[in-house]
Amino acid sequence: MEARLNLFDNEIATKFAKRFLNAGLVIDESPLPKATQELVKIRASQINGCGLCTDMHTKEAAAAGETPVRLNLVAAWREATVFTEAERAALALTEEGTRIADIHHGVSDETWSQVREHYDDDQLAALVSLVALINAANRLNVIVRNPAGSYEPGMFASMTS
How large is the greatest C-alpha to C-alpha distance in the chain, in angstroms? Predict the structure, then answer.
């Protein structure tokens, strides 16, 4: 499989990617737990069918010490006992925020209440921003059909400089 457009070899796309990745640094440096960040990225990417992002974030999570059991159960998090209540609230927000067009009310008051129980304003700001950012990344990659499977942890770290 070959991408329709090589976003990594196009001047405009490369400029955009650097700015996009730099925006992600704000979230990376936030008090939102790193494990939660990766779970959110994985779940949104699964929903959106973004192979590249699913590949990237499962590998990044594994490299950071995430367990195979948790990684394998992200798609079935509601039925899994390996996630904390805070992580479950973040995953619920991720699903509703990702499927926003499918739900007439967007994120439900119940889900919002659950995330408010577990996250302070700074963490919540990072979480909401992360859901928006990963959905944008998924859309870029799905549109151009970027293939998955060859990502190596830390591969894009040099692009943020």
Answer: 45
Burial tier of 152 (Cβ tally within 10 Å: 0-12, 13-18, 19+):
exposed
pLDDT band at 161 (very low <50, low <70, confident <90, very high): low
- By C-alpha distance, which of 61, 60, 44 is closest to 135? 44
Could you list the beta-strand ranges (E) of the chain.
Answer: none
Which pTM value belongs to this model?
Answer: 0.93
- So what's the pLDDT on residue 6? 84
Of residues 34, 61, 12, the one with CA closest to residue 126: 34
Hey, how many other C-beta atoms are within 10 angstroms of the C-beta on 59?
Answer: 18
CA dist., res. 38 & res. 60, Å (int):
8
Instruction: Give the C-alpha separation, 51 to 145, whole Å.
Output: 9
The CATH architecture that domain 32-148 belongs to is Up-down Bundle (1.20)
pLDDT tens digits for range 55-83: 999 999 999 999 999 999 999 999 999 99
Whole-number Å distance between alpha carbons of 125 and 29: 12
